[in-house]
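Q: Entry one of two.
A:
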Amino acid sequence: MQVKRITPVLFVPEIEPCVAFWSERLGFEKTVEVPEGDRLGFVILRKGDVEIMYQSFTSAEKDAPVIAKEINQGRTFLYVDVEGLDDVIAAMKGVNVVVPPRTTFYGAKEIGVNDPAGHVIMFAETGAQG
């Protein structure tokens, strides 16, 4: 068996603010969208070989009612390895910072923010100076 890709699916009350977060701040493109009434129910965002998916709680409850309770119980923490963390920090102006810029004991320069749904996104540049 060969694992080809792992793509996170983040569950949220509404997708549209998350699309704006990834596309306007980080240059991701919406490659797939599935409507749910007058809103989005599901979306795939992509930049290069990197993907992230969002699905609304309403859509997930209809799609997988057996696990809806688990879906509604928590937030996700993503660790995103980047090049050029200073550019990411600049793009996060006005976003809720939950871990201020720091350099870790293992040499990563990091910043942690909340996406519009409250998920923690930790951006890190490994081997960064300073």
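Q: Entry two of two.
A:
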Amino acid sequence: MYNDFFKKEIYLKKIDSTNNYLKLTSFEDNFIIYTFNQTKGRGRRNREWLDFKNKNLAISFLIRSTIDPIWLICTASLSLIDVLNSLNIKNSWIKWPNDIYINDKKLSGILAESVWSDKKIEKVIIGIGININNNIKDLIKLNNATSIYIETGKKQNLKTIYKGFKRELSKWLIELIENKNFNLIRNKWKELSLISSKKIKWINGDNIIYGLINDIKDDGTLVIKTIDDNLYEVKSGDVLLDEVN
């Protein structure tokens, strides 16, 4: 038996978006929901996240805390890496700030959304979509996508994957919120990011920076060092690896 961080969980047979469901309800703190049939999943900047009925897992959890959402994204990332390790899947890593890859293929994306009230954050909702039993045909239109099934050659029990993820997520959230163990989480995140000293292209709207990853700061800020040795700190945007000639 493990220490369950969550006070309550709900399974939904079908839902447009697990994040939207939590945004529009008044659930208390430490609440988690999941489904195997999300019909209108989305990622950052309202990008579409393709879901396949009974092949993908969509999870959202609600936290009422003043902790920066970047650390909640971090705990979700670390939790999924732990699940992949338990399945003996090698070469999984975290692409700052919110994607999980296996080698050069994307397995999962994470979306953080804050709900405001009286100019204060009332609650933070973290959603994660995981490709589990998708085959190559399912993902053929996505050039850099993979699934647990593609990586292992074995169909997975979706409920088992969810339970494993929830167990690991509880562990990391207890370290973050109850134990305030930021250093453990930050160091593990940096270890699994695999981006230190890598060439990157950072994009945020019309802003583009080429350089090397220099560091991830305590608040989750990414530090980029350009070829003329200037340091830029960024906390949002898209990072593309190996884009510098």
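A: Comment on entry two: The domain at 8-192 is CATH 3.30.930.10 (BirA Bifunctional Protein; domain 2). The chain has five helices and twelve strands.
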